[in-house]
Amino acid sequence: MDSFKGKYERVSAENYEEFLKALDVNFLLRKAATVSTPVMEVSEEDGVWTIKTSTTLKTMELKFKVGEEFDETTPDGREVKAIVTLDGNKFVCEQKAKKEGQKSTKSIREFNGDECIYTMTIDGMDLVCVQKFKRV
């Protein structure tokens, strides 16, 4: 898992705007998110993993212990119960919405050498968003 650690820059994004739209993210935030080039930094200390994603506008931080459920407010404002599990070279994060009518999501960060493939889906929808990051 040490191989996961490092800094990555986004090099491509498929269906990202459609994904954000499906989560009811407003137009301005969608535009800002899709034109930015986020840098994702993966680190770990004492069993606590941190995935920090930074753009010029916003920095989001995901802190977790593998296999332990935690409360999270997603970047788009949903209150969720989240759990991150390890599946080989993948961090699998499941976010279950706490509020009725809000969407639950699943994201997988797959680490292959100097690349991280970040796949996001929304429960009950066929939409798949894939972002690729390269180690910097």
TrEMBL record:
Ranges for domain Lipocalin/cytosolic fatty-acid binding: 6-120
UniProt KW keywords: Lipid-binding
A Pfam family annotated for this UniProt entry: Lipocalin
GO terms of molecular function: fatty acid binding
InterPro entries hit by this protein: Calycin (IPR012674), Fatty_acid-bd (IPR000463), ILBP (IPR031259), Lipocln_cytosolic_FA-bd_dom (IPR000566)
Keyword Mitochondrion assigned: no
Homology family: Belongs to the calycin superfamily. Fatty-acid binding protein (FABP) family.
Protein name per its UniProtKB record: Cellular retinoic acid-binding protein 2
Organism: Acartia pacifica
